[in-house]
Design a protein that fits this description.
There is one protein chain. It contains 18 helices and 15 strands. By secondary structure, it is of the alpha/beta class. α16 runs antiparallel to α17. The N and C termini lie far apart (86 Å). 39% of the residues are buried. Pfam families: Aminotran_1_2 (PF00155), zf-like (PF04071).
């Protein structure tokens, strides 16, 4: 007799891992003891221009819509959602898209799940280019589908034979989290190839209104059984809590999906709010969305330019309301960086959950100029704090090594494998890679203040200070720091007894004179 499982759930459900998302305001408020109103969320990609209500985009205010919806809430919603579907079709500005092509959704995630439920059977294959939005994988695994991962740059080279093996290929445009925007002409060729292979091209266009709606395939989806387009209203209208989205498909596919979706999946308030947004004059080219795109492009490029000045920050393309940042040159992991920013009340997206990115990337939203400036300023604070902690740890490790006798007397610790070697002079002693006295602010050392463009301020630079890298000085500092006393007090003592005499040229070895000869190239 076959033994029953400990619970009635299917095996693929029991082993399912959830999808990581941004926007964890309440959770972060509780974790870091920061009031919600003081948290700045750069982890969720919403329209920084503000809601249509804030911008008075020719709409009734939210209270009025809520009052009208309340009157209708005593009855079940009209499950046809004709007002919403007509408005969505009009919004797309495509002659061949009508209400019959629209599938209303309680957010775009419901649309993904509905489509996967209706298309996939046990063991079917789907193609997911990576890195990309994690919900495709989750919703496919719910149907026990097999995932075929391909690098996102190889999408256009897939053969019809490779496509034919899969039921669906998912394309996010612009892609989350890379912000890469694919051109319509390239996607049209892919759509033709998918149609011949009878593989559905699932186009996630959640951010296209905030990027370039002219690259959409909504008109193709309305007439092609093997193209499906998904749109999200929560991103472009900056109201994620209302949960609104819709799909676009050929009439026969849309009819089937509307029969299969959950009954009454939109409340009267959702339908009225969505219809109001979608009915704005001009649709995707409304004044509200046109100004939104202009602001986003300006601020995305501003952030990209400013963050490019930060060593170890390499922002990706600026096409929409978020940036992917490569941080692999920093020794901080993405998770550590997220934690440090959160302590300052700023949430950023850890990209560790995106396949292929590991701990080397973060994603940030594009927000208002004032908020973007605050983010840039916080970058400096985070790295300053990290550098101080790192220097302290380095000092303690150095002292521990010295105490256990791993350093042989008089041997120079040159670290010739260091990518910055020699950062001061050939043959330097690198025991104190990070100076324990930083910032000493004493220009007699050779250190000086330099202008930092990323902070628009002066910072202390040790580039021309040689003193802590001369072996005789290092040995004296190490011996003194081994005394049984608090490190800060020992450092003060070392400065007075070792460094100051050097600066005043009263030391026996005339170290400062030696430093000057190094600078002059005489040694």
């Amino acid at each position: 007799m076959t033994q029953k499982a400990s619970n009635p759930l299917k095996e693929n459900i029991q082993n399912l891992k959830g999808c990581l998302h941004g926007g964890l305001i309440k959770e972060s408020s509780e974790k870091y003891n920061i009031p919600e109103r003081d948290i700045l969320d750069f982890s969720a990609n919403l329209n920084p221009y503000g809601t249509p209500f804030e911008r008075q985009a020719g709409l009734s205010d939210y209270a009025q819509l809520a009052a009208e919806a309340l009157q209708e809430s005593v009855n079940y919603p009209d499950n046809r959602y004709l007002e919403f579907r007509c408005a969505a079709a009009s919004f797309l500005n495509q002659k061949n898209v009508a209400a019959d092509n629209i599938i209303p959704g309680n957010g775009s995630t419901e649309i993904i799940r509905l489509f996967c439920q209706c298309v996939l059977n046990d063991g079917d294959k789907v193609i997911i280019p990576y890195p990309t939005f994690g919900e495709y994988e989750i919703q496919c695994r719910l149907q026990n589908a097999e995932i075929i991962y391909v690098p996102t740059e190889s999408v256009y080279t897939l053969t019809e034979e490779q496509l034919r093996e899969a039921k669906i290929i998912f394309i996010c445009n612009p892609n989350n989290p890379t912000a890469v925007l694919r051109k319509r002409e390239d996607l049209l060729r892919l759509a033709e190839k998918c149609a011949r292979a009878q593989t559905v091209l699932f186009m996630d266009e959640a951010f296209i209104e905030l990027s370039d709606p002219d690259q959409s395939l909504a008109d193709i989806a309305a007439e092609n059984n093997f193209v499906f387009v998904m749109r999200s209203l929560t991103k472009c209208f900056a109201l994620p809590g209302i949960r609104l989205g819709f799909g676009v498909a050929s009439k026969n596919v849309a009819d089937a999906l509307n029969r299969a979706r959950l009954s009454w999946n939109l409340s009267p308030l959702q339908e009225k709010t969505g219809a109001a947004f979608l009915s704005m004059k001009g649709g995707v080219h409304s004044e509200y969305l046109t100004k939104s795109r202009k602001m986003i492009l300006t601020e995305a490029n501003y952030l990209k330019e400013e963050l490019s000045k930060v060593w170890g920050f390499e922002p990706g393309v600026a096409t929409t309301n978020f940036l992917l940042i490569d941080i692999r040159k920093r020794t901080l992991t993405s998770s550590e960086m997220v934690e440090r920013f959160a302590r300052h009340g700023i949430l950023i997206r850890d990209c560790i959950s995106f396949k292929g990115l590991g701990t080397d990337f973060i994603r940030i939203a594009v927000r208002t100029r004032e908020e973007n400036i605050r983010f840039i300023q916080t970058v400096s604070k985070v790295f300053d704090e990290w550098a101080k902690e790192f220097a302290e740890n380095e000092l303690q490790n150095t002292l521990k090594t010295h105490k256990t006798g791993e350093r042989t007397g008089g041997r120079k610790n040159e670290r010739e494998t260091c990518e910055y070697y020699p950062c001061h002079f050939e043959g330097q002693d690198c025991t104190f890679c990070y100076c324990p006295f930083y910032p000493c602010k004493d220009e007699r050392t050779g250190g000086t203040y330099v202008h930092s463009s990323k902070r628009n301020a002066k910072i202390w630079s040790c580039t021309d200070c040689y003193i802590p890298h001369i072996t005789s000085v290092v040995e004296k500092l190490l011996d003194g720091l081994m005394e049984d006393e608090e490190t800060d007090k020992l450092l003060q003592k070392e400065w007075q007894e070792i460094i100051l005499p050097i600066l005043e040229e009263k030391d026996d070895d005339s170290v400062l004179s030696y430093c000057r000869k190094i600078k002059d190239g005489k040694i």
